[in-house]
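ok new one. same drill as before - structure tokens go in, u give me an amino acid for every spot. 268 of them this time. try not to just spam alanines like last time pls lmao
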């Protein structure tokens, strides 16, 4: 496996690095990351045993595959800073919302190898979901190398770039909504007298198990919901309250808001 570098070592890069290291895909000694603050670099070095530097140019020099894992607003300046070191053989992996392949090619050159991706933070616990979209300069072998990274800590789909906005709404951003749902479920249990730690365990295991049923049973989510609703029972009372309060419409609107924001960021 080739060496991997990260410019930016924040929330998403840490989740990816943690996922790679836990899966033993490559030795942590073949991973290098840069960040602005010493405390961030100390944290990733201590947690994952990887190499660190404050100089992003060192990341590019020492890596075959380079993740640009900074916030979208500094993306172009970071690319400008390192672009003369991006040789034709290096693979640039982007993970930013709103950064199209075209916009990256405009800065580093359209002859460069670029893979646009949209991961999510559950990568850290081996349950990531990533959309992958290569540019025209990536060959099958190179695509497979990038896939093997994302596959080492979760699932992936190759998508057309036009679907990336939808991916952000449904999986890039969605862990935040799911955490809110878990928090609210637990609040309900706490209201009924359960200690909070225990409430998080019941709530999160229940969400994880339900997701697993959708993935593994091949049943429609509505059918799985019906299987929980006993006639005249407790669940249908709760379902009726959720419908009354537009739970599904709210979530569709929330996903659409994330999709729209992603589109707006892409057009800047
Ligand atoms: N957080 C998430 O759940 C997801 C984030 N993303 C994308 O990942 C990217 C990073 O997001 P987060 O990790 O959440 O941000 P973050 O703020 O946690 O991390 C950003 C990192 O970039 C570093 N940085 C900033 N300027 C730099 C520079 N000039 N040179 C080197 N390092 C620099 C910071 O020190 C920090 O370590 C964004 O583009 C975002 O769209 C994509 C999917 C999910
Ligand atoms: O909120 C954001 O912009 C990033 C992209 C997807 C998840 N976090």
């Amino acid at each position: 496996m080739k060496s991997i570098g990260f410019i930016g070592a924040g929330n998403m890069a840490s989740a990816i690095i943690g996922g790679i290291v836990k899966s033993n895909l490559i030795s942590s000694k073949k991973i290098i990351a840069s960040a602005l603050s010493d405390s961030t670099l100390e944290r990733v070095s201590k947690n994952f045993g990887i190499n660190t530097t404050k100089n992003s140019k060192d990341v590019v020099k020492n890596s075959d595959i380079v993740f640009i894992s900074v916030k979208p607003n500094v993306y172009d300046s970071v690319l400008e800073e390192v672009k003369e070191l991006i040789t034709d053989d290096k693979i640039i992996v982007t993970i930013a919302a709103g950064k199209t392949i075209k916009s990256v090619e405009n800065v580093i050159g359209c002859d460069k190898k670029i893979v646009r991706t949209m991961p999510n933070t559950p990568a850290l616990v081996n349950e990531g979901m990533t959309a992958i979209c290569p540019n025209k300069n990536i060959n099958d072998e190179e695509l497979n190398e990038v896939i093997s990274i994302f596959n080492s800590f979760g699932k992936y789909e190759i998508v057309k770039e036009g679907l990336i906005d939808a991916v952000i709404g449904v999986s890039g951003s969605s862990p935040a909504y799911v955490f809110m749902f878990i928090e609210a479920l637990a609040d309900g249990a706490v209201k009924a007298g359960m200690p909070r730690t225990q409430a998080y365990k019941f709530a999160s295991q229940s969400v994880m198990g339900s997701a697993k049923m959708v993935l593994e049973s091949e049943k429609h989510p509505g059918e799985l919901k019906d299987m929980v609703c006993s006639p005249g029972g407790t669940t249908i009372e709760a379902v009726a309250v959720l419908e009354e309060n537009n739970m599904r419409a709210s979530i569709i609107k929330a996903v659409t808001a994330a999709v729209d924001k992603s589109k707006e960021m892409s057009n800047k």
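DSSP finds twelve helices and eight strands in the chain. and btw The chain has a mean pLDDT of 97.
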